[in-house]
C-alpha cells in the first residue's frame, strides 16, 4: 500500500490466510529478520493477510495456484466473517483459473440464509464473469432470481451486476425488462432506480414498444423526485423514449415537462447541474426544437456565467441558440451575442 514490494512474502501471506482463527486469518505481521524471509502472526502489529493478498497478488503470482482449496474452505465456512473476508479478497485477486474452479462455490452462496453473504456473492460474480466468461450462461438464471430477493441489498447488488453486464450488449438483457419495470415502479432506492433507468435508456432503441410502457412511470418520477441525479437520468431516458416513438402519438406534455425541469437544472447554483441541463437540452433540441425556444433567455445568460467551466461550454450554448433562432427572436439573439463579443476576454471566447 505504501509502494514497497512484498512479493517475497506471498507464500507466507497464504500461510496466514490458512489459519483456522479469524483474527489470525485477517491479521499478520511482516517481521524483519535478516532479508525479511518470514511472515508470521503477532498480536502486537496488524496487517490484514487477505488485504495483503489483495494488494500484492496478481494474475502472474505463482503461489495463487495453492490458494484454491483454502479459499473454497473459507467460502463454505459457517462463519460469516470467514466467508465474507474470502469473498472480499477473492474479488481483488481472482484469476481465470480461480474463477473457473470456484464459480460453483460462489453460485452456491447465492442460496445462503445470510443476506450479507448473498450480496457479496452476487457482486463477486461480476469479477468471475470477467475472468471466466463461460460461467455466465449457466449461472445467469440464478443471478436473475436475485433481482427478486427479499433483501433490498441483494436486489441492489444484482441490479448493479446485470446493468454492468448489459453495457456491453444490452440486447441480451431485453427479456429482463418486465422484472426491471416492476423494480422501477416499486423501489424507493434512488441509486438502484438510476441504474435501472439508465439500462432502460439503452434498451428503448432496441424495442420501441417498451418506450410507450415507460413514459408514464418516468413522468411520475420526474414530477415526484427531489433527487437531481435521478431527475436527470429520468429526463435522459424520456428523451430516448420520445426519439424511439416519435412516429406516433401526442407527447407534448412529456416534452414540456422535461424542458421545464431542465430549465430548473440550468438555473441551479450547482455548476455541474447547469452543464448537465445544457447537455440534455441540446438532445431535446435535435427532435423538438420549438419546445426549447421559450428558454432562450436562460441559455443566453449562460454566456455570461461567472463560472469558467460554464463559459467553456459556450459552444454548446451557441448550438442551443442556433436551434432556437426564429424570425421573431433573431435580432434579440444577435444583439446579445454582439454584447458578449465586446465584453469577452481572450480570442478563444470571441
Automatic annotation (TrEMBL):
GO process annotations (BP): anterograde synaptic vesicle transport; Golgi to vacuole transport; neurotransmitter receptor transport, postsynaptic endosome to lysosome; protein targeting to vacuole; synaptic vesicle budding from endosome; synaptic vesicle membrane organization
Annotated keywords: Membrane, Protein transport, Repeat, Transport
Localization (cell): Endomembrane system
Record keyword Secreted present: no
GO cellular component: AP-3 adaptor complex; axon cytoplasm; endosome membrane; presynaptic endosome; terminal bouton
Pfam family, one: Adaptin_N
Major place of residence: membrane
Keyword NADP carried by entry: no
InterPro entries linked: AP3_complex_dsu (IPR017105), ARM-like (IPR011989), ARM-type_fold (IPR016024), Clathrin/coatomer_adapt-like_N (IPR002553)
Cross-referenced SUPFAM superfamilies: ARM repeat
Span of domain Clathrin/coatomer adaptor adaptin-like N-terminal: 50-347
Entry similarity comment: Belongs to the adaptor complexes large subunit family.
PANTHER family for this protein: AP-3 COMPLEX SUBUNIT DELTA-1, DELTA ADAPTIN-RELATED
Name recorded for this polypeptide: Clathrin/coatomer adaptor adaptin-like N-terminal domain-containing protein
